[in-house]
């Protein structure tokens, strides 16, 4: 196996994140704010811990980001009916327009990413990356069980 494969994947993820951040900056949002806004659009009604884990940020970092976005009228915290200590996160109607602006700013980024690959190659790449993701997710889950 090519020992550089892991490096290439990490480096490509870094480049993709940079391209995302640059395009999102044109909307007046930071990359982390845009990722949170899009995550809330995909998974409304989840708690802050869920989103901190999925965005790979510390809970306090996410809390501060949500504080700022709530003050800006983009995010709403609601009580969790099953856990009085937790708050569930939702987008406000204003944020839905912001999500559309972000998606518009990202137009063409994925096309740029796969330029030079035909549809068959894109489908194969997608299958392979999903398999890698499944393999790594299974590894993480089994380690969590083995170590407590």
Q: Could you characterize the architecture of this molecule?
A:
With 148 residues, this protein is mainly alpha-helical. It has 2 domains: 5-107, Orthogonal Bundle (Arc Repressor Mutant, subunit A); 110-141. Helices cover 68% and strands 11% of the residues. It has 7 helices and 3 strands, in the order ααβααββααα. It has helices at residues 5-25, 31-42, 48-55, 59-71, 93-106, 109-113, 119-146, and strands at residues 46-47, 75-80, 83-91. A 3-stranded antiparallel beta sheet has the order 1-3-2. Strand 2 and strand 3 form a beta hairpin. It is globular and about 50 Å long. The mean pLDDT is 89.
Compact description:
It is built from 7 helices and 3 strands; from the N terminus they run H-H-E-H-H-E-E-H-H-H. Helix 2 crosses helix 5 and helix 3 (48-55) packs across helix 4 (59-71).
